[in-house]
């Protein structure tokens, strides 16, 4: 179990360092560092740190993708929509039940 925790901690550190090297916005980089520091102080489970580091990486990926969408001539002017369809909950007729 100790070996697994060490591996998770190393992976979380590698993901975070890789992310921080690529983030160009100083405020965003500071936010990721602060959030990971608070998570490190709060959680003792290294798998949670790894998951949180991956969550930060996915957030940055979406930040870059939505930013590039406006600069790309192919996507310019199109509204950002989710990749899935959101449906309203079906109304249940209580008289039929």
Write up what this structure looks like.
The chain is mainly α. The protein has one domain. 66% of the residues lie in helices and 0% in strands. It has 3 helices and no strands. The relative contact order is 0.12. The model has no long low-confidence stretch (mean pLDDT 80).
| Outline type | flat
Total strands:
0
What composes the largest sheet? none
Radius of gyration: 20 Å
Mean pLDDT over all positions:
80
Distance between the termini: 52 Å
Secondary-structure element sequence?
HHH
Q: Assess the beta-strand content as a share of residues.
A: under 5%
Helix content: 55-70%
Q: What class, by secondary structure content? A: mainly alpha
What is the number of domains?
1
Uncertain runs: none
Highlighted features:
97 residues; mainly alpha; 66% helix
Annotate the secondary structure layout.
Elements: H1 2-22, H2 26-42, H3 46-71
Question: In a few lines, what is going on in this structure?
Answer:
The chain is an all-alpha fold and 97 residues long.
